[in-house]
Design goal:
Radius of gyration: 22 Å
Number of helices: 11
Distance between the termini: 48 Å
Strand content: under 5%
Order of helices and strands: HHHHHHHHHHH
Mean pLDDT: 76
Largest sheet: none
Structural class: mainly alpha
Helix content: 55-70%
Length: 256
């Protein structure tokens, strides 16, 4: 007898299946369903947009990986329209990334990134906050620690997103501290379990791959036990677990 195939619970169809299951149980959380559907649609739109940009870059036969990466990262930008070029008073700049210094009075109030705690509920919200509010390495590092491995794993269950994995690894490599070793290992384990991880790892730039290697070298050095105050061959149980996890991550991240 054939087993009944379970419906795919990811994406818009998955949201519909969940709604039907809730309906059978006479419990429907419309707010949660709407939020999950919006997140699924946003993630699907982002994937299609970036995939189209990759195809355009291949057709254009770009000269370098950096140029290819730039085209994909800029896939969300739209060309200026006639109304953006002439006439009318602008209250919001067409490209906020080009604004330097303090905004003028006719622009919207800027949110202070130093006072903003990263609390995304979807991968799209994380990507937005990561680009908009977290500009420096220390800010990004603290945000990753604040979220932790389990939350990051849930946010990026489908895909980390092109270019984001390398930026995360660089932030961790530049600012990792011995006291944070266990948390960082948990973050690395969660990222390794995300969708298309191997592909995203292979698409990292040379600089990002070197940062990844540097990060694991630092983590290995931090885990080296001191000979002082312990017997030969003795290791705390927690440290043994961390070392086992580190060896697994070295294999997953293709670090020799």
């Amino acid at each position: 007898m054939k087993k009944k195939k379970k419906p795919n619970m990811d994406g818009p169809r998955g949201c519909y299946a969940k709604a039907q299951a809730m309906k059978r149980n006479d419990i429907i959380d419309f707010k949660a369903l709407e939020k999950e559907l919006q997140a699924a649609l946003t993630a699907d739109e982002k994937y299609k947009r970036e995939n189209a940009a990759k195809l355009r870059a291949v057709e254009q036969r770009v000269a370098s990986y950096e140029e290819f990466r730039g085209i994909v990262l800029a896939s969300h930008l739209k060309p200026l329209e006639q109304k953006d070029k002439i006439g009318g008073k602008r209250t919001v700049p067409w490209n906020c990334h080009t604004i330097q210094g303090r905004p003028s009075q006719d622009e919207t109030t800027e949110i202070s990134p130093e006072k903003t705690l990263l609390q995304p509920e979807t991968s799209a919200e994380f990507y937005r906050d990561w680009r908009r509010y977290l500009r420096s390495g220390p800010e990004r590092y603290e945000a990753l620690l604040h979220l932790g491995g389990p939350k990051l794993g849930r946010l990026f269950q489908m895909d980390v997103g092109f270019g984001l994995l390398g930026e995360m690894l660089m932030a961790l490599a530049d600012h990792v501290r011995p006291a944070d070793r266990c948390v960082v290992l948990g973050i690395l384990r969660s990222l390794a379990s995300t969708g298309r991880f191997t592909l995203n790892l292979s698409l990292m730039s040379h600089v990002e791959k070197e940062s990844c290697r540097s990060l694991f070298q630092k983590l290995q050095a931090m885990g080296t036990p001191s000979l002082e105050g312990r017997g030969l061959g003795e290791q705390p149980g927690g440290l043994q677990e961390e070392e086992s996890l580190l060896q697994e991550l070295l294999r997953l991240y293709h670090v020799d």
